[in-house]
TrEMBL record:
Entry keywords, A to Z: Membrane, Transmembrane, Transmembrane helix
Principal location class: membrane
Record's protein name: Unannotated protein
GO annotation, cellular component aspect: membrane
Length: 123
């Protein structure tokens, strides 16, 4: 069976991830009174916000802010349809465990994508 999706590059993936993380960091910093007012405990807030926005946006829209800017979307591997809430949750939990987001197979799918039945592809 041929691979039916347009592969995205590692660089695009990492740029989108960095943009999403920075957006969450900026939001937490803004609500904390600025970067200079942030304590190490605020890292947990950034992580929680990153998790929530990624799960919600991947499940409802198929893409985070970073994915949209870099021309990508997340779909079900089996048929290219939208992810279920369960698939989005599995994928997001595994992305938060960063090591799964930087290991890829021959088709360019990360462990988080294989275990959730998803694929990040070009729009």
């Amino acid at each position: 069976m041929s691979y039916p999706f347009i592969r995205t590059t590692y660089g695009r993936r990492m740029a989108a991830l960095a943009l999403d993380w920075l957006a969450c960091y900026a939001i937490v910093a803004a609500f904390s009174g600025g970067i200079d007012q942030m304590s190490p405990n605020h890292s947990l807030y950034v992580l929680i916000l990153f998790f929530a926005q990624t799960w919600i946006l991947i499940t409802l829209q198929g893409a985070t802010l970073g994915h949209r800017i870099f021309g990508m979307k997340t779909v079900r591997f089996e048929d290219g349809g939208p992810l279920s809430a369960r698939q989005g949750l599995i994928r997001t939990l595994l992305v938060v465990l960063v090591v799964t987001a930087v290991t890829f197979d021959d088709n360019g799918r990360g462990i988080h994508e294989r275990l959730s039945g998803s694929v990040l592809t070009r729009r």
